[in-house]
Amino acid sequence: MIKNPVPWPNNAKCAVSITFDVDTDSALHLTHLNKADTMVSVQSLLKYDEIAIPRILDMYKNFGIKQTFFVPAWVIEKYPHTIEQIVNDGHEIGHHGYLHEHPNELSKEDEEYWLTRSIETIEKFTGEKPRGWRAPLYNFSKHSAELLVKHNFLYDTSLMADDVPYIIQSEKGEILELPTHWGVDDWLQFGHFTELNYKMPIKSATDGIQTFMDEFEAAYEYGGMFIPVWHPFITGRISRLRLVYKMIEEMQKRGDVWFAPMEEIAQHVQKCIDNGTYKPRKINMPYYNEGIPEINNDRIIQQK
After folding, report:
1. Cα separation, 18 vs 247, whole angstroms
2. Residue 141 contacts residue 111 (beta carbons within 8 Å)
3. pLDDT at residue number 297
4. Would you say residue 303 has pLDDT above 70?
5. Handedness of CA 93, 98, 101, 105 (dihedral sign)
6. Angstrom distance (rounded) from CA 143 to CA 229
7. Which domains are seen in the chain, by residue range?
8. pLDDT at 43 over 80
């Protein structure tokens, strides 16, 4: 089904990077500006990150793998001890906004302000500029590609237009896209947060993790990538993480699954592009600069 699989290192059949978005309570303060301080119960839920992250790091040590955590810069400033554990264990810190703001709701100038402010925070904390970016809630804007190129990012992982890496072309240059999608996001499996206006039936740990395993099996069979988008306060719960242990154990048992941080995957893909062993699709961004001309403002089609 995948016509142009990436030649993964050591003849691996699949690349895996389990990414955790460490949002903690960042977005709550932005979306509930005037009452976040009164929302004690949901604060306690989101602060479970402080329990889950050491547990996740222990799991990675057990399997001898390095992975990627996308962290809003405000979370680094607010919870340095927690994020320091990630850095000390040698995992990648990716850019995930400042306060989990939505880039597609900002002006270009404001988007760049928060982008650069967060770069500075990450560089100061880790000693390195971030190489990868994931737009909060995947809300990539019309200007994001151009700004990522301008600020020398190696890759983005916000978009969903393919199963394998592709190139985003902007007016200012190109950036590599490592796509993921909602089917590997844990909010849809385990998210039920009335205070955050997100209500879904919570699946059992077995059913939810099996959904992710199904996605992995397809990527494994056809030579793709498995890039789940998880959150410590969700998938870091004991009933779920105990099954993630078994999931990783099964993957490693295969002997031909490559676990790597996102930056390392991006570097490998770029090397394959440069030496001609991989030819990705190229997609011009943005898709549209304004509303489509086929719609007459005097006779707007009314959707029911």
Report:
1. 11
2. yes
3. 62
4. no
5. negative
6. 23
7. 9-284 (3.20.20.370)
8. yes
